[in-house]
User: Which sequence fits this backbone?
């Protein structure tokens, strides 16, 4: 390490820097606020002018981020949001938090990383650190982002520095705030790793350095593949145990009494969100380049992807038992967000299930206190609005379908007045008198 590098690293360690965060969604906004809370000024970048205006006014557009935190950060003058990407030149570290979706055939779609890299390259200067947080296959930082950044004429490891640090947000989980979740960092070289380690120590209680960006990328995929495979296992067992007239929830509760060698996972109507349904297939795609197959991942994907269709079949069976057809049936869906406590409907099984029910001629409404409207999405355009819960509505429907048990949902009211409930979350276990079927 030469004298110039030592001086820059010392600035990072002291927090005498400005951080730029690109993408102010569920990852980027909490990350920006974590740095501000740690005493480091942050500039948030986003292409959505409405988001930028809301933040300037101290308003939150995320159910998981309190407006009071944004107001305090803006008032401190340590945080501001902008759509002007030329301001990236004012940042000592630039963190990329943009989406990494899948294409039509489950192939990685890195266009947002590449577009963002091109924006950074326009103002990239000597001494800047760039960190990718968007989940992708091992080698993305090295093979994709680095190449785009070097179009600036600067050389990685000599002029600018590059690292990967996987996001580990769990929106809606009150037990783990951004700063409390241990942070992994891995650089393209020794010095980049040192800079990234110094950077994240200002926003996180614990930062763990790994040997290379590829290791950090792979660790993120392992975390989500582990969950996807185990959820697929209990989803498959749920269907098997249904045929045997065995309650999967009771089985899991019984197995969880073992104090070692077992960790409970729970079934559901399918996988949702921006991580678990998507991230494992980045590794599947990448593995093919090396002539390798990922059979566990593929099988887990098939099982989890089939769950919305299984739920619709269970709806049809439940209505048939009640002497009714799914066509024309009045169905109220509880919860359309992908998980409880959030308003995020990306890849939500609830949205897919609503679409499947409408396709079978059902009259569908939904109640979700955090999702006011279901408008145009990547795959669907349902044009539905949240329906308030009341006894009259519940008595008028043929079936209530529990998809996501959102906080604030009056389960007691539902149990008392709904003629039939199909429960995919075991939410009505404390209401034995209600007419409840499980799915």
Assistant:
């Amino acid at each position: 390490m030469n004298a110039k590098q030592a001086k820059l690293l010392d600035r990072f360690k002291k927090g005498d820097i400005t951080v730029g965060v690109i993408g102010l969604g569920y990852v980027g906004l909490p990350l920006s606020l974590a740095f501000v809370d740690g005493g480091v000024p942050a500039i948030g970048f986003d292409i959505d002018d409405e988001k930028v205006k809301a933040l300037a006014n101290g308003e939150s557009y995320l159910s998981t981020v309190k407006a009071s935190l944004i107001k305090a950060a803006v008032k401190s003058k340590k945080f501001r949001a902008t759509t002007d990407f030329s301001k990236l030149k004012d940042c000592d570290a630039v963190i990329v938090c943009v989406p990494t979706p899948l294409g039509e055939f489950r192939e990685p779609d890195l266009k947002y990383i590449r577009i963002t890299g091109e924006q950074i390259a326009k103002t990239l200067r000597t001494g800047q650190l760039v960190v990718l947080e968007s989940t992708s296959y091992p080698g993305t930082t090295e093979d994709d982002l680095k190449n785009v950044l070097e179009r600036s004429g600067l050389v990685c490891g000599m002029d600018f520095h590059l690292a990967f640090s996987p996001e580990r947000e769990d929106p809606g989980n009150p037990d783990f705030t951004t700063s409390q979740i241990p942070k992994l960092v891995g650089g393209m070289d020794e010095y980049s790793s040192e800079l990234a380690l110094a950077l994240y120590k200002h926003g996180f209680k614990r930062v763990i350095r790994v040997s290379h960006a590829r290791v950090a990328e792979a660790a993120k995929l392992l975390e989500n593949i582990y969950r996807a495979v185990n959820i697929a296992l209990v989803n498959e067992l749920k269907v098997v145990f249904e045929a045997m007239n065995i309650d999967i929830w009771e089985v899991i509760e019984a197995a969880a009494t073992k104090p070692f060698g077992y960790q409970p996972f729970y079934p559901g109507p399918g996988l949702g969100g921006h991580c678990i349904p998507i991230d494992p297939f980045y590794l599947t795609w990448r593995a093919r380049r090396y002539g390798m197959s990922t059979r566990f991942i593929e099988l887990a994907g098939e099982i989890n992807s089939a769950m919305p269709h299984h739920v619709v079949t269970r709806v049809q069976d439940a209505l048939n038992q009640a002497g009714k057809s799914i066509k024309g049936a009045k169905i109220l869906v509880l919860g359309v967000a992908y998980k409880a406590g959030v308003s995020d409907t990306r890849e939500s099984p609830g949205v897919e299930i609503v679409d499947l029910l409408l396709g079978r001629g059902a009259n569908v409404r939904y109640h979700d206190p955090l999702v006011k409207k279901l408008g145009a999405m990547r795959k669907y355009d349902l044009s539905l609005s949240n329906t308030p819960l009341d006894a009259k509505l519940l008595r008028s429907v043929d079936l209530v379908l529990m998809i996501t048990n959102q906080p604030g949902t009056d389960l007691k009211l539902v149990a008392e007045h709904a003629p039939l409930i199909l429960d995919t979350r075991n939410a009505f276990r404390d209401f034995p008198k209600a007419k409840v079927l499980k799915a």
